[in-house]
């Protein structure tokens, strides 16, 4: 089946109306609501449930992977419902269109969009429920609703003494109707939003009661492991099935699409059997590239193809021709693994022509497609139970680990937990893509007259569309899954969103330059890639802000002042830049053996400036201090904002100092934390986070701490050593 772009648009125009209508009425388009007499529960919308005995449940449409949605989104509901956030019990959402992320039209958590996508809908849900409770109480007391007040789970009579609990009012509230939109509380009346308070999941996590995917236990559960080929794309040819099957506790050994699965009654027995497995792989279609060849291919592509124009202003070629000096630089970044502390895992149970999956997934609706794809089931026959996630960072947007668990469970007809080892997690990841950047700029004295940026590397949609496209149309038969993916790629930028993964952060270049030329040369060496914390901003941040630093030195300017003079008309950029410099004491003497570096970057709507103070100790890079100022709009929970920015800084520094995945003829060289290191506790710098008070709509904080810290560290090392590093990871080259 083939379809050109014009035909796709015709079909899309005829089929997307009902979907968009459902999404335009959040919480009202198919989720059962109302009061149930038998259970004593009132469900006013897709998110809230209030019971006769005063229990309040909140259905959390975004997963909790440490970034604070469990607390932040609950706070939005609590504020308008007039209850303490502690009085609400969150639970993870099932797969349903009501819970889709409006930014992506998929039920996923990513892009630092949890608060921004929920800011108004959840507050309106809480406000509407509160008003219905007030109306119910007013009808009982025969008073004006406007004279009643909701406070701490009660509605109070105008006399200020009599009150009724929310649970008492649940059934009667379900019969109320609201014709007009309920006004939201003004900021001056907020009790919880913007206030410093703890996390609602802290106790469960610190006591071991929070259930992560790897914690799931089911009656009669067995354990599965999968041996995958060393080279991506290979297929199993033969393996010693009988020998492995005869080992203690082994229940089954069989081939699946991604390798050889071994199922045993105990996890350790499955691993021991895996050690005895001898598989021969068919490498005809396997990856064979090495890292050096990847970058050689990037350079050839850059030479042969100037790339698609992504932003063009003025006439860069003329500006470069007239410039007193043209500065050029090339930057490169390696493939990076995600290294989530909870390795990939999922539990699945096939029974009665249905399959149920328990998984730490960032995208449960894609997980449903993944499970249906490897069984004879339709997506409607798949139930996804989302657990807490021990780190996501974009890795758990891709559902290969769910596919494996579903394929194994479909065969053994028992509840089976499939767990990846740390080595498997490292060597069979989908990586942050390696990228190449060619930069050029014109300078007239100390004035920047032209900016050219050529970005070379793959896009992520090519790899992600496999399950994402069918998830948008779960009614489609499975034989169309491949076609839907092709249509999604064909319609990219027309009927589907443009893939910004390679260019984001580069095209938003904030500095005032008359002549700008930004291009993307698309080339893909076939290494599997996916989203990584801060995505394209991570590699573009390094290239843009390191080159800006180089230009400042070429112009004989202070790196801070050089940036500042180019930010006229950018007040939010300027404020965070000035604040970070002030915190860091930019103009004060640097301690001996240290250097300071600066970087400024906007990502996911959030403005971040950072100053890093670093040096070299015992032949290793040592980061002493990071001063960070950010403007993320209205803050819901300041403590969580600080935590996320600090976490992003450590994540970025880890990548800057240690991060590198290398391929050797299709095989990944790294395997565990000994050769793919994370920063350790004793290495952590002193971090200061300054949050700009703002009334702007909230933006993201899970990822914006990552992009600027990498170039800021590189710039600090240059200030110390006088040697410019244009390749990551950075080295202690003094």
TrEMBL record:
SMART domains: Ald_Xan_dh_C
A Pfam family assignment: MoCoBD_2
InterPro entries registered for this protein in UniProt: Ald_Oxase/Xan_DH_a/b (IPR000674), AldOxase/xan_DH_MoCoBD1 (IPR008274), AldOxase/xan_DH_MoCoBD2 (IPR046867), AldOxase/xan_DH_Mopterin-bd_sf (IPR037165), N-heterocyclic_Hydroxylase (IPR052516), OxRdtase_Mopterin-bd_su_IorB (IPR012368), TAT_signal (IPR006311)
Ranges for domain Aldehyde oxidase/xanthine dehydrogenase a/b hammerhead: 207-285
Gene Ontology MF term list: oxidoreductase activity
PROSITE patterns the UniProt entry points to: TAT
Name this polypeptide is given: Xanthine dehydrogenase family protein molybdopterin-binding subunit
